[in-house]
Every structure is written in C-alpha cells, then in structure tokens.
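Thread amino acids onto this structure.
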C-alpha cells in the first residue's frame, strides 16, 4: 500500500522521513530536467499527505533494499501484534548496533541500548528516545549526502568546493563506508525510477574518488609509520621524525663517478645562500618564464641522503590531503621491487594491480583520463637494463611486455603520455636515462648545519642532552661532515644514546662504526640470547656472523652492489633468520606487501656500513688467517712466505686505494687503517687480535711520503683523512702554526700545501670569501688552492701575478653548475685579451652565476671588449657589474660594452669603463706610478730633506726652518705634498730603521702621544722596516711579517676600493708583504718616519 493508505489507527509519523526541507521542495531536481513529473503532480482530489514521501509504490513494497536484495521482508509485512514503530527507521538491526557511525565521536547518539536506562523526558519508552536521536543523525546525514550527490550530477556543480574536499579528507574510515553505502542506495533508487543514465553518471563520477580513497588508504598504511635505521627497530611516525632536506634545482645528467664520501664532503662545503630550496609539492611547477610543462623530473642524491623517505613523505602527504591534491593518482614504486619481476611479462594494468591491490581495478583501463604521477625510487638499484634505443613501442595499458620495456615506454611518454614521472637515483647511475627525456634535474643535498641541529634536538628531547651531543659531534669534523647524511645522524644518535656514562665518546669514523657494531651485538645478546649486560660482546657466534657479513660486504663492494638477494646471503653462509635478528646491521628492505610472495631483498643500512664491515673482514682475514685479500689470489702463497709484514699489508691497501680511478676504496681505506689503532682493537678485544704501535708509526710515515709525491688534490685530502683515523695530526698542527704566524710562502713542501688545503676545506670555517693574497700572490698558489675557490661565493685575487693560465682554470669554474661564484676580482693581473677570452667561455654558459667581474688594469684592449660583449649576449641574465677601467679599450671598445649596458634584455646595470691610455698596457702595478714629493713644512726639525725633497734622513742638528702648525714637533716624521684618492703606486729605497706609511692630513702634529705617531692611531697605516724584520702597524696593533727584508719597498693604493698593499721589491719583481682592506674617508698622504738608531737611517723616493 502507498504511504497515503495506512491501516486504521496507524500513528502519524513524527517527522519528515529521510529528507531535508530543501529536498522536499523539489525532490527530483537532482535528476535533471528530463526527470518525470514529481509528487507535486497529484490526481485531482488526492488527499494531502501527512508528509512528503520520496518513495514510489514500488519502493514501498520492499523498503529493505537499503540493505541489499537479500534483505528480509519490508516493514509492511509484520507479524500479527507487532507494535507500531514510533517513526520510520532507515537502519537494519545490524546498523543499529553501532549507530554512532553516522556522526563523529562527539555525537549525542552515543547512548547505550539499555532499557533500564532513564532518559529525560522519555517517559516509559527509552527505545523511542534512542530512535529520536538516531533519526536526527540520519536526517542530517541524508540531507548532506543528497546535496553532495546533486552537485555530482549537476554539470555546473560536478566538483565539490575546496572546503568540502578538506572535510572529506579528514573523515574517518567508518564515515567513508557510510557514504559509500548511501551512494549504493541512491544508485538503486535511480534505476528503479528508470533513471539509468543518471545512475551511470553518478557511478562514473564517483568511481575515481572511490578508487582514489582506496589508494590513499593503502599509501597511508604503507608510509604512515617507518622504521628508522633497522627493520626490527622502533616503529615511528614519519610525520614526527621527518626533517626537511635541502632539495634544490641543479645538476645535469653527467656521470659523477667519484666516491660518494667525496661528494658528501663537497656538498658540506657548498654555499647554499644563493640557491632556492624546492619543496616536493613544487617539483612540477615550471620556473618563471618557462612555457613548456614539466613532465619528468630526475632527483639525484648520494646513498643514504634521504631520497626514499623524501618520496614517501610526498606520497603520505598526498594521501592525507596536504599537498598536490590536483594530482588524482600517485603511484610510488621502488625499482628494487621490479627486480623480482625480471623474468615475467605484465601489462601496465596488471603491474599496477599487483603493486597496488584492491585500489584502482575499476578505473585502470581509463587511467590516461586522469592526472597521474609515477614515482620511481632508486634507479641505481634497478638490475634490468633500460634500452631507450629499442624500437618496441607500447601505448596500450593492457599490452603485456617485460618490466624494463614498460619502464622505458612510460619514461619516453608512449604509455600514458599525460602522466608525470619522478625518478630518484644516485649520481653515478642518473645517466642511464637520456637527458632529453628529463625536463628538470634536482638534487637532494641532505642536512645542512641547521637541519643537523634540528634532527638531534628532535631525537634527544632533553635540551641539555641534545646540546651535549651536538657539542661533541662538532668537535670531530669528519663525523660532523658525515652527519650531512640523515642515516648517519641516526647511527650517531644510536651510538651516543647507548654509550655508558664515563666512557670516552667516539671521535673518528672508525670509532663511531666500531661502537655502532658493538651496540647492536650487545642488544642482540640481551634480547635474543638472554645474556647479561656484563657478558662478553664478541662470542664465537657473533664472530662467525661478522665474518659472514664481512664477506658479503667485501665481495659485493668489489662489484659495486648495494642490494642482495637470498642466494647472495646463502653463498656467504648467512642464515636468513639470523640475519633478521641482526636487524641494525642487515636490513630487510621488503615489507609483507606488495611483493613479499616473490622474495626478499636485503641491504646494509648505508654504503658506509658495508665498507666498514668489508674493511673489518679484510683485517680479520689477514690477522686471523694470514690471508691478504688485497694481494690477489696469485700472490697469497708468496705473501705468506715472504711478506708477512703488517706494515706491508697496510701499504698494499694504500696502493690499491690510490690506483682505483674513481676513489671507490677511499672510505674502505680509512676504516682499514683506523682498525690498526690499539684503542680500537681494545674495543674489539675477543674479535680482533692486538697489533703494535710500531706498524702504526710506519704507515703514518708511508702515507706522508705518498702525499709528498704530488698526488691529486682529492687523493691527498683522503690521505689526510686516513692520518686523522690514525690519530696523527703533526703535519696539520705544523701548518696551523704557519697560518697563525702569517709566514706562509711559496717554499712550503707539497705535503704542507696539501695540509693547508685539507685544513681550509674541512675546518668548518666560512669560505664565502677567498683572498689569495692571504697565502701567497702567485699562480701556483691559485692552482693549489683552486678547490677552495670552487666552494667560495667571492674570490679576491687582485695584484696576484696571474696570467692567461689562471683564466684557463677559472673558466670551467664559472661554467659549472656545481659552483656558485658570484663575485670575482682579478684586477691588476697580466690577463690580456687571451685570458679574457678564456674567462668568457665560462661567462657565456647558462650555468654561470657570476654577478660582479673586476678586470681593471689587466692589459685589455678592444679585442677583449669584443669577447665580453659576446658573452653578455649569450648569457645576459646574471652579470650585474663590470669594472674594466685602467685598460686600453679605445672608444670602439667602450661602445661595444655600452651597447650591452643599454640593452633592456641584459641584466648589466653598472659599467666602469674608460678609454684610458696606452700606458695602462704596461704589466704590473707600475702603470699606476705617481710622483711623490715631500712637504718640508711638515718635516720635524731634526729631519734633513735633500735630492729635491725626495730623500729624508736624520740630521745631527735641528734644521733652521720657520715654525708651522702642520710640522711634527716630536716624532721624526714627514708627509708628502699631495693627497691621493685614486689608484697609485710608488717605490722607496730605505736603510736603517724606517717607517713607510700613509696618513690622513688630520693626523695630529703636536706632542709625543700615539695620536701623532705613524701607525699608532686610526689615522695612519705604517710598514716598519729594519734589517731584522718587517711589521705592519695600525691603531697601536702590530702584525709581524716573516719575510727577509730588502732595501726597496713598493706601495700600492686603490683608494676607492679601500686597498693598501706593501711589496718587497727584489730584482725588479714584487713580493707581497701585507694587504689591508678597509674604507678610507679622507685623501691619503704618503708619509715617513726615520729612526735614530742606526744613525744612517734614511728613505729615498724612487
């Protein structure tokens, strides 16, 4: 019967059933204009209903279709005597068991179904009160869902507003289930009304959302919690432990084959001030001015730098609705998973079903209609070949092919051309994908210093403890540099939090890894073997395990393998269950899903752990079994008979590492040498036999001889790291004394120069500004210290005797994307036009970031101007200032550069250029020579001026001269006649004890105070010259200069630049003594002071 035909006495409903007032006004409008007439069109005389019903007679006959076709009979078919309900309910008994799912946790419907419970105002029927609350929930829920469905069906409102999207993302799983159930009900109702077209539209428009929600749920389950470091360790929230990495634009597809520890050290020295950090949510956002969309991105980073967690964080944030919600589907896939499918063929549809089960099956055939992101992590772990020359083209997601063929077609854009691709890789393997398939290259640099601090403060919640940990790791530069890698931060934290109080903390990398190994085997013994904390760490069982792990590490290090399969472990005698127990040493990478049925993959938690265990294995094999694994199979017996020498063993290791062209054994060598230290052997007592100090001293001496052979800078630096592991700091301490004394010169040995480079690159000092004249003004010094220039942002090398050869090495520095030099001062060097041309080869590169170039006084002509103008046309975006004064440019040369200044597309905004004269083509500083005359009115009366006022000495008697307010009345001093404000150079010959100075005219003249004495106040600067030494004086401060005096001194003043330099002149060559950089506020007057002892002291202007 219809709702209008009720049995006699049937109670009137208490409220409108399952509909809001809005839907009651036009219940069928959600269907569209072609819907049949609504309940507003009643037969004449039809009685007014007690409430509006959205049910047809057909639906009234079987109301239980809310639960599905197998539901029990409808509410109209009741047993005799069944009590009349207080209102119509849209719930089965099953749903009534958990009524609160209609609302959130604060719902008022959380009332237990207890008939003995008393409800305010409920009378004698508590069930009525419960249903009254449920009815409110149901009406609210249905009303909201009807509005949502209407928006879905209405073409003008097919997308929910952003606020509703956010609300949907925050819903719990139970509410999603309710919404899905209601949607199924609405599909049934639409089809009963013969609205199949609308039902299909509703299904098609909501199916992607349903699949997306399933995919997001799966990704949250996979990535919401991670295990830091080891597979059996503490399960942590990724959101809580995650620390942002420094991720920046840059890099090319070039092969970087050097050992990654070198890359770590290089990255730690990079100046990040001028680089823009890229959030993963902006990976595919085109740069300003770029018209083409970005389809594919390659992100490079060394092993353990955090690439995998970086991709997982993006997937998790997307699944939680935090970022990239314009992306409809996101598929993070690890290449190591695909290795297990190498002998099988899949279509892309089948592959995604396998990797993301139960999520996207219903829409996968139409995946190209959606915005999709594929994330392929760790290309370096892919053991299949990517052949981009293959001619097989796959465009159909249902076509089967090998996994590597699917990958190449996805990357090339044949499969799902609209999909976006993000690939991560170690630098050495990034070139496996041709660069024309990559639209953007980025780089993960790991933690900068600020992020290191943040990590340890997050890890150690106690502020005092965190400060102690940070203070300690900063005392060891090698450890602090390695903390650039997130996983090494975890290793360090693991060691430090398990180091008992009173025990010396590790200061070298070898000590850190020994402690790390010890910590995990102690924990293993306590947890799995039931041993006490006092029990020996190294039992026969643990020794056997370490030998097996070491064998695996060493053999696969030689093959450059980082991941291993069960067969690899079995070949090395490793029991898989036992390996899983040693969780912190060997990590089980694969989880139970999605491919756990295919097999399991293992790897060490970081390459450095593998290298340490490999070194330990080689060490144990030599000392325990008399086998030198580094000597090769053919020489083992010969070794045992003739060369059983510890020192020769270590020397062979050094030679082997040096012969490796890529430096891949550098860290292995550090560990192997570090294991020779008695202190480290004491920690491993019971595992490693004790050695002697004699061998350590011998290998230290051997390493120093290798450094002195003139190895490459990278090899020398690594050998100094080896000396650090051996705890020998003698050479470094020696060179630090030289630096503090200011006595560095060209006579340093090769070892000392290498030590200087090592100190500069590893000291942690700010290298933003590099001043070549602090070390030695020569081209050889520049070549030796070029790695320091590469990591600087500003290089000042004026007056350093540089030539075309220097430009040859500086050009590649300017053109490399790896360096960020922004200011370069090469003024007053003999560069000439040929040198400028070499510089311009770097300047015109799109990777060049130079903003300021100073080449004044460099013997440049119109030809050099032409090279500079051409470079500015090729790369007009970066150079802002060009100083090319004091050259012989001519009018035409100046016009070439002025045209670039006036070009609106060129960034150049400051041009300092003049026609100058041919005299500026004279090499060196003498092109700035000026004539200096002494002012007799300022000379002390004891001074004698002669040789046309160009020579001054001390007389026996006071000179007869008029009184003058500008005369020095106590100090034996004299000023020149004219002040200087440009570039000037003059030379003087001297003997005895003299002071060669410059001073402001406002220096005081009366009295014997320091405010009148040259070099003793802030108005004068003086070079003290005697037969014993030079020293520089200013404001009563003295700087000793350890160079043998000569009888001629040159003085160079660049007043606008604030530069004052003194040179020793010998055999017509300038040898730098001291340079001052400041800001001058008044014209400077050359000035001299003559000592009384010896009595023949004098100064003569040349």
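Threaded sequence (1102 positions):
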């Amino acid at each position: 019967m219809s709702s209008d035909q009720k049995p006699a006495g049937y109670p009137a409903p208490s409220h409108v059933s399952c509909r809001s007032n809005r839907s009651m006004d036009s219940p069928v409008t959600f269907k569209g204009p072609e819907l049949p007439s609504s309940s507003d069109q009643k037969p004449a005389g039809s009685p007014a209903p007690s409430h509006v019903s959205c049910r047809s007679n057909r639906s009234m006959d079987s109301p239980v279709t809310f639960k599905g076709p197998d539901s029990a009979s409808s509410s109209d078919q009741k047993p005799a005597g069944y009590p009349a309900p207080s209102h119509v309910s849209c719930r089965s008994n099953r749903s009534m068991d958990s009524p609160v799912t209609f609302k959130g946790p604060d719902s008022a419907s959380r009332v237990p179904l207890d008939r003995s419970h008393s409800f305010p105002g409920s009378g004698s029927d508590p069930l009525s009160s419960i249903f009254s609350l449920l009815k409110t929930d149901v009406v609210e829920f249905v009303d909201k869902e009807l509005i949502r469905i209407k928006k879905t069906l209405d073409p003008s409102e097919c997308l929910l507003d952003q606020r509703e999207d956010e609300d949907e993302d925050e819903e719990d799983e139970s509410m999603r289930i309710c919404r899905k159930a209601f949607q199924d009900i609405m599909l049934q109702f639409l089809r009963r009304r013969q609205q199949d077209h609308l039902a299909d539209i509703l299904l098609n428009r909501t199916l992607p959302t349903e699949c997306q929600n399933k995919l997001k749920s799966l990704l949250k389950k996979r990535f919401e919690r991670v295990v830091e470091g080891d597979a059996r360790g503490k399960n942590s929230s990724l959101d809580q432990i995650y620390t942002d990495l420094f991720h920046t634009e840059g890099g090319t597809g070039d092969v970087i084959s050097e050992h990654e520890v070198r890359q770590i050290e290089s990255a730690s020295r990079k100046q990040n001030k001028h680089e823009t950090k890229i959030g993963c949510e902006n990976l595919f956002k085109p740069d300003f001015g770029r018209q083409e969309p970005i389809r594919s991105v390659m992100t490079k980073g060394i092993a353990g730098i955090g690439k995998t967690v970086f991709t997982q964080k993006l997937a998790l944030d997307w699944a939680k609705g935090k970022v990239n919600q314009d992306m409809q589907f996101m598929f993070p896939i690890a290449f190591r998973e695909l290795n297990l499918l190498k002998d099988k063929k899949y279509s892309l549809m089948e592959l995604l079903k396998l990797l993301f089960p139960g999520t996207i099956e219903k829409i996968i055939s139409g995946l190209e209609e959606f915005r999709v992101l594929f994330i392929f992590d760790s290309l370096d772990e892919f053991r299949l070949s990517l052949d981009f020359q293959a001619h097989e083209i796959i465009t159909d997601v249902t076509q089967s092919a090998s996994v590597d063929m699917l990958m190449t077609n996805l990357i090339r854009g044949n499969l799902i051309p609209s999909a976006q691709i993000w690939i991560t890789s170690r630098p050495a393997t990034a070139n496996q994908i041709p660069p024309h398939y990559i639209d953007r290259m980025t780089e993960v640099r790991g933690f900068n210093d600020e992020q290191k601090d943040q990590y340890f403060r997050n890890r150690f919640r106690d502020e005092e403890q965190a400060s102690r940990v940070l203070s300690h790791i900063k005392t060891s530069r090698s450890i602090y540099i390695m903390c650039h890698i997130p996983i090494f931060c975890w290793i360090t934290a693991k060691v430090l939090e398990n180091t008992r109080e009173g025990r010396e903390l590790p200061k070298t990398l070898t000590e850190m890894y020994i402690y790390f190994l010890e910590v995990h085997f102690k924990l293993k013994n306590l947890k799995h073997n039931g041993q006490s904390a006092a029990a020996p760490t190294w039992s026969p069982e643990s020794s056997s395990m370490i030998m097996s792990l070491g064998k695996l590490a060493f053999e696969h290090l030689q093959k450059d393998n980082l991941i291993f399969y069960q067969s690899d472990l079995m070949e090395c005698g490793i029991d898989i269950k036992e390996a899983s127990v040693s969780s912190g040493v060997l990590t089980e990478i694969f989880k139970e899903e999605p491919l756990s049925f295919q097999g399991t993959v293992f790897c060490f938690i970081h390459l450095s752990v593998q290298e340490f265990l490999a070194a330990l294995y080689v060490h144990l094999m030599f000392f325990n079994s008399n086998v030198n694994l580094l000597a090769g199979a053919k020489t083992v017996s010969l070794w045992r008979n003739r060369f059983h020498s510890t020192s020769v063993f270590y020397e062979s290791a050094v030679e082997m590492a040096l012969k490796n062209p890529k430096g891949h054994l550098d860290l292995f060598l550090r560990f192997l040498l570090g294991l020779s230290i008695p202190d480290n052997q004491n920690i491993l007592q019971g595992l490693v036999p004790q050695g002697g100090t004699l061998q350590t001293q011998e290998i230290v001496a051997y390493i120093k001889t290798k450094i002195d052979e003139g190895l490459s800078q990278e090899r020398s630096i690594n050998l100094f790291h080896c000396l650090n592991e051996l705890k020998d700091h003698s050479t470094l301490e020696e060179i630090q004394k030289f630096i503090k004394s200011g006595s560095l010169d060209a006579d340093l040995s090769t070892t000392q120069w290498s030590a200087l480079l090592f100190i500069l690159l590893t000291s942690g000092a700010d290298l933003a500004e590099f001043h070549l004249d602090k070390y030695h003004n020569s081209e050889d010094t520049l070549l030796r210290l070029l790695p320091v220039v590469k990591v600087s942002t500003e290089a000042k090398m004026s007056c350093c005797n540089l030539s075309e050869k220097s430009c040859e090495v500086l050009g590649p520095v300017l053109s490399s994307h790896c360096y960020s030099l922004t200011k370069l001062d090469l003024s007053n060097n003999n560069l000439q036009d040929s040198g400028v041309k070499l510089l311009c080869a770097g300047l015109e590169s799109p990777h060049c970031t130079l903003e300021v170039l100073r080449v004044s006084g460099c013997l440049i002509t119109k030809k050099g101007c032409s090279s500079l103008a051409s470079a500015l046309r090729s790369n007009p975006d970066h150079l802002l200032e060009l100083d090319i004064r004091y050259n012989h440019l001519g009018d035409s040369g100046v016009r070439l550069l002025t045209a670039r200044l006036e070009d609106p597309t060129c960034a150049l905004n400051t041009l300092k250029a003049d026609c100058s004269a041919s005299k500026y083509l004279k090499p060196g500083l003498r092109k700035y020579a000026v004539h200096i005359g002494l002012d007799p009115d300022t000379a002390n009366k004891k001074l004698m001026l002669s040789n046309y006022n160009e020579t001054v000495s001390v007389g026996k008697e006071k000179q007869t001269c008029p009184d003058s307010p500008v005369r020095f009345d106590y100090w034996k001093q004299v000023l020149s006649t004219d002040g200087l404000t440009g570039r000037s150079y003059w030379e003087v010959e001297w003997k005895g004890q003299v002071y060669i100075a410059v001073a402001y005219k406002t220096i005081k003249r009366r009295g014997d105070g320091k405010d009148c004495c040259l070099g003793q106040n802030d108005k004068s600067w003086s070079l003290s010259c005697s037969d014993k030494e030079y020293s520089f004086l200013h404001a009563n401060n003295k700087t000793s200069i350890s160079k043998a005096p000569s009888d001629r001194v040159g003085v160079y003043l660049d007043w606008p630049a604030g530069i004052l330099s003194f040179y020793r002149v010998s055999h017509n060559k300038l040898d730098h003594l001291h340079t001052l950089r400041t800001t001058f506020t008044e014209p400077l007057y050359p000035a001299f002071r003559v000592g009384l002892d010896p009595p023949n002291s004098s100064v003569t202007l040349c």
